[in-house]
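To close the chapter, one final illustration. This time we ask the reader to focus less on the individual chains and more on the assembly as a whole: which components sit near each other, and how the overall shape emerges from the parts.
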Amino acid sequence: MSRVLASIGSAVLALCREIGGMVLLLGYTVALALLGRFDRREFVRSLYKMGVVSVPIVAMTALFTGGTMVIQSGIFVQRYQAYGLLGWGTVYAVLREVGPILIGLMFSGRVGANNAADLGTMVVTDQVDGLRALSIQPIPFLIVPRVLAMVAAMFCLLILGDAVAIVGGMAFGKLLLGVDFASFWASCADAIKLWDLTVGLIKGCVFALLIAITSAHYGLQVQGGAVGVGRAVNDAVVAAALLIMISDDLLTMVLR
Amino acid sequence: MNRAGAKTRWGHFFWAAARQLAEIARLTVLGAVRSRRPKGELVRQFYQVGNRSFLFVLVTLGFTGMVLVFQSCLQLSQVTGDLSQVGSEFIKYLVHEFGPSLTAMMLATRVGAGIAAEVGSMVVTEQVDALQMCGVEPVEYLLAPRFFATLVMAVVLSVFGTLSAILLGGFAAHQTFHVPYAVFLDFDKVRLVDVFTGFVKALAYGAAIPIVSGFCGLRTSGGSEGVGWATTRAVVFSSFAVIVLDFLISALALLTWQAA
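The assembled structure is written out below.
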């Protein structure tokens, strides 16, 4: 009995330690970003490394996502012969839910995991201690530019991904279901509002912030060589996926 | 390097990678069939893949279920106001699409990254070379049990994830839009073909994730940085494999057995 209690207690304490570490890191990062105390050149470099390089994978993901959404609405549309609703259903789902979540998960895999691995390698090879020895603070120099770059990159990638998913949806709707571009376009032009896009973009930026903080946190906590780096990357993507799903729920309830 | 040269170099690279992937897939499946694996390894992998992902899948799928139900109730209450169909349609979609696919996305991050990190660190610390020196085929020894465990657990976890999404979706509909549980939990619209589609998807994802991430793990080179890269690649490529397979199987299902 006491062993069960002890194991539950240690699990809760470990969880609290992780959450506390992330909240502190988030606080430092936001404060330093607002004060403007971060490395500008590292920001531009990260923007390239995180944004530009992720374009192909985001575009491919978005293309297939648009296709899948068309197919899924297509089953419903075929049953009720409601071909006029196809465009609205697809675009609404892509803009508000599926786009941010799937592109967010891909972004977490591509950029978040990479960031955790990068920081982890720096920790393992004592480069972070080296920075401290040169009296360069690691957080303004390493963390803040990357966090800002991730949020900015996600914002742009999400706009691109939404566009690709909609075009892909139109193409696959024509190909698989025989719905004209004009009727697809008309049905989303009528019912889609700017607010739908805004909600998706807000979600994307929040997801990017969570991905950035989790990956930085786990990356800086690495212990023990190559094995530790692998484990840190794994923990970072799992935590990011969990936080994406939970925050998506909360954001959907708040932003109607 | 001129443009054409760069192109052929990339062509060679992709061709080599594709051949290696096919070889690893062949060896993995062969190894899984031949079942010459270390004793107790399969049970350990079942535990690693299944039990340790269980809570993660339940939580993520549950929250997704709540979101999806909330969104569809919100839209329908503005259009028609009749929310009695939400439950049955939602359950149908969950069974043949969102349940297996989202579970697999979660498994790709949790299990795929785990396999690549584990195998990658074994490559970097020359444990894989040591296996080869002992005359053990590393793909069969390392990947076959993980392949088999992920194949089984993808199906099992899809079932639990779908149930979690249905129950929490029902909870969301009850709390925010006052849809009674008896109306929401209506399984009549789920046909056998929907269950079949979901099952095929879960099997395909369960086969793709360990092969792709094992491939990424075995290609690791160069220390801790290499392990980080391998893990990153495993997450990206296995998630992408899930998305592509989802599209392909959905299209196939729509055009053949699921046609209304």
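The mean pLDDT of chain B is 85. The CA atoms of residues 52 and 247 of chain B lie 28 Å apart. With these observations in hand, you are ready for the problems at the end of the chapter.
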